[in-house]
Every structure is written in structure tokens, then in C-alpha cells.
Design brief:
By secondary structure, the chain is α+β, with helices and mostly antiparallel strands. The protein is built from two helices and eleven strands; from the N terminus they run H-E-E-E-E-E-E-E-E-E-E-E-H. It folds into two domains: about 130 residues, no CATH class; about 30 residues. The protein is elongated.
Length: about 170
């Protein structure tokens, strides 16, 4: 029984991780955010990530989880702050955007295209990232009807056993 309780506690504790929101503000009109499951990514080398959801605007175009396909690759500092990135998206109306940064301002590029024509392009000026964690929903234990039935049956059984053994006080 103790082993079962420990396993149940660990399962509940593991499911209570906060999601991480990364918000990007570009210097050329690319702005947005993406959400990753769990704690912030900590990887000095860029790694591909698969966001739960994302939403970016680039000029008058919107790129999100429902209308586009995207690729995200990030490298972070020891506290999870993004310091290297590559992300790109293509929506269903021939729009696309691309942003990358690998360590120095001269290596930063933000580009937005529509129908193959650059509508915004900025090189050498990296955007900024903010990181935040979304706290998980609180777990509020609520007895199920079957639990109530089990408790009532258990108490009734103990009272019946006590009555049968003559342990119940009679007047």
C-alpha cells in the first residue's frame, strides 16, 4: 500500500510542472510567442523544440499553430534564457517568416516574405526574448461518488462488527 501511495504521489507531482512561455520582440515587426511543455529548455547548443502552441505576427500576417507549419530551434543559457535561435514558419497564403541569431549582432537576421517578395528584412540587429513560466492548475481533490460509497460502507461495516461483538453502548 505504501508503494502505491508513493507512486501515486510521484505521478501527481510530475504532472504539476509549469509550462514555459517564450516571447519574442523583433526589431522589424516580427513579434510573437511559443509555449513549451514543462520547465525552460537548458541547452548551450541549439536543439529543435516542438511547441505546444505558437503565435507570431510579421507585418500584417499571422502565423499560429492552426494556420501554418513552423520549425523552432533554440540554444539557451544555464537559466533557460534564449541566446541562439532559428525559427521559421510558412502559412497557407504564401506568407513566410524567418528569424535566426547565433551569438553576435552581425549574425542576426529577421525576414518576412509574401509571395516570394521580401516585405521586411533586417540583418545585424537581434530581437529580444522574455521567458515566463505558467503555473499549473491547482489540483483540488474531490471525492468521487464511489469513494463516498466506500467510506460509508466501511463505516457501516465497522459499526455492524462492533454491534455484533457487543462493543456498541446500549441504553
Amino acid at each position: 500500500m505504501k508503494v502505491f501511495l508513493v507512486i501515486a504521489f510521484l505521478m501527481i507531482a510530475a504532472s504539476a510542472k509549469a509550462d514555459t512561455v517564450y516571447t519574442y520582440t523583433g526589431n522589424d515587426g516580427i513579434n510573437g510567442r511559443f509555449v513549451l511543455f514543462g520547465a525552460p529548455v537548458v541547452s548551450e547548443m541549439p536543439v529543435a523544440v516542438d511547441p505546444l502552441t505558437y503565435f507570431f505576427t510579421a507585418g500584417n500576417q499571422v502565423f499560429d499553430s492552426s494556420n501554418s507549419t513552423a520549425y523552432f530551434e533554440i540554444g539557451t543559457t544555464s537559466n533557460g534564457t534564449i541566446d541562439d535561435w532559428l525559427f521559421s514558419a510558412k502559412n497557407q497564403t504564401d506568407g513566410s517568416f524567418f528569424s535566426e541569431f547565433y551569438g553576435s549582432g552581425s549574425e542576426a537576421t529577421d525576414a518576412v516574405q509574401y509571395n516570394g517578395v521580401n516585405t521586411a528584412y533586417l540583418e545585424g540587429d537581434a530581437g529580444n526574448w522574455l521567458i515566463a513560466e505558467i503555473p499549473p492548475d491547482p489540483i483540488i481533490p474531490t471525492p468521487e461518488p464511489s469513494e463516498w460509497l466506500s467510506m460509508i460502507a466501511g463505516i457501516a461495516g465497522l459499526l455492524w462488527l462492533a454491534h455484533r461483538k457487543g462493543l456498541v453502548l446500549r441504553r
